[in-house]
Amino acid sequence: MLGGAKKTGESIKETAANIGASAKSGMEKTKATLQEKTEKMTAHDPLQKEMATQKKEERVNQAELDKEAAREHNAAATTGHQLGQGGHHTSGTGGAAQTRRQFGL
């Protein structure tokens, strides 16, 4: 009986972590869209506008990759924890996108 409760609890933790990863991804996508709009409004050269769009698309793609990596990690952590190996849940805290932002890339 207690084993089923543990599995349910781990499932809830994984779901919560996945929701967090999705929320973070959505926020990153929104930031990318707003930055693109700002850059397009201030740019006068069509090439600069196109570069802003490409930059946004890269950020959106990276946010999606980070979200998927967090989901995979959460699933692996839950599976490992259920096997008695412990585990760590994350909602997608950083990764390559955060590193690029820190260095202004």
TrEMBL record:
Residues 83-95 have a biased composition (Gly residues). It holds the Pfam family LEA_1. Transmembrane segments: none annotated. It comes from the Eukaryota. Residues 26-74 have a biased composition (Basic and acidic residues). One of its GO terms (biological process) is embryo development ending in seed dormancy. Belongs to the LEA type 1 family. This is Late embryogenesis abundant protein.
